[in-house]
Amino acid sequence: MPDDLRDFIRKVEQIGECRVVEGVNSKEEIGLITQVAAVTPGAPMLVFDSVKGYPPGYRVASNVFTSRERCALAMGADPGLDARGLVEHWRRRLREPYHPVPPVIVEQAPVKENILLGDNVDLLRFPAPQWHAHDGGRYIGTGCAVIMRDPDEGWVNLGTYRVQVHDRTVATVYISPGKHGDIIRRKYWARGTGCPVVVTCGQDPILTLVATSSETPWGSSEYDEAGWLLGKPVQVTPGPVTGLPVPATAEIALEGEIVSPEVESRSEGPFGEWTGYYASGARAEAAFRVKAIMHRHQPIILGMPPTMNFEASCPGLSYRRSAQRWTALERKIPGVRGVWEMPEAMGYPVVIISLEQLYGGHAKRAALTCLAEEAYMGRWVIVVDEDIDPFNVSEVLWALGTRCDPAGSLDFVRGWWGSHLDAALEPVKRSHGDLTHSVGVILACKPFHWKGEFPPSIKLSPTQVALVKQKWSWLFR
First CA to last CA across the chain, in angstroms? Predict the structure, then answer.
């Protein structure tokens, strides 16, 4: 796996998937170029340098994980794997015994090449982009890691939450209700104190992967998980103000405290969100008072703004979460042949389960069990038969269109865990702080009690396809 963000960029350059863009502005052009490239097949990772108004070397990297090859590289997998192959790769890792590998403390660290304190603290020295046309400001934190320590239990949490710059020393960190970071900061506020925090704005890809995951259980540190995945401890260095462990190779680290909204708040947003909308609007968010900045020479902001490509802001998340859901589901349910969170539907909202039905009610049990494993922002769970490839959208739609009668194949679960980011949330519920929504379950599979009488399919088996391609290979090059 790459040693840090810079090593990852070098590896991407070696496979010909990186382009340097110079002389653009951070107000409009970085965001526009990023959004267009994110949905262009085969588009490379982008590194913006010599940004107008900033010193050369103060860079912004975007579309870092928008290709399957780059996701694989970050995950330590073969860049040639397809979607199923990447999910299977992660499933193999999950089957290995988990042994947390705590980080090790080092005093000398690249992130401490520059330390700014007191009047030298200035968030405006970095080319934080306005990523979307209607964003409420500049966001230095999109591909970031927000680091907090639980005040009761002492463990350290890393989460990825968006960070908006307001002036030289104040930012805001938006965290959806119920996320670990939100629970931790509220514990400090309940004690009448601010929440100590460090925000890194560019870090080792493996830390980015674990920080964006929602699967690390409460009470477990993402640092320990990253060490397990790397096979060695993550090197961290104490922050000069909070003492929190900061990744030694981070590009930029902002250190300070998030105070209670009653103490100080700023208007946060709107922001173009991963759902594809400016759904949460603008609202008062607790102020993040920045008291120290550390950064490497020629720092790189890791930009992972939401675009219409889900992987832009959620690197490899469909592969990793699908592997986690599949592994968890098959521990309780027999016959599971595949699980896929559809990136075309922005991942979380639509999950496909391929299942060999073994008894009446089997398909619905699988759907509800899958929902119980991960509740956040779910919208649809679709169950298909074992002959349907859940990674193939065309096959899933074929099953949806031909194997179920909606009157008997749909169910709804109400009161599900939601977010301000839900574009379909009714205005009256939003105004009352009720963020819950319903989830639909679709059984797009042959009715179990007469599936033996279901008309046979014209679909070829994988073996037949392979034989044809082998015998007449010249036709399929």
Answer: 32
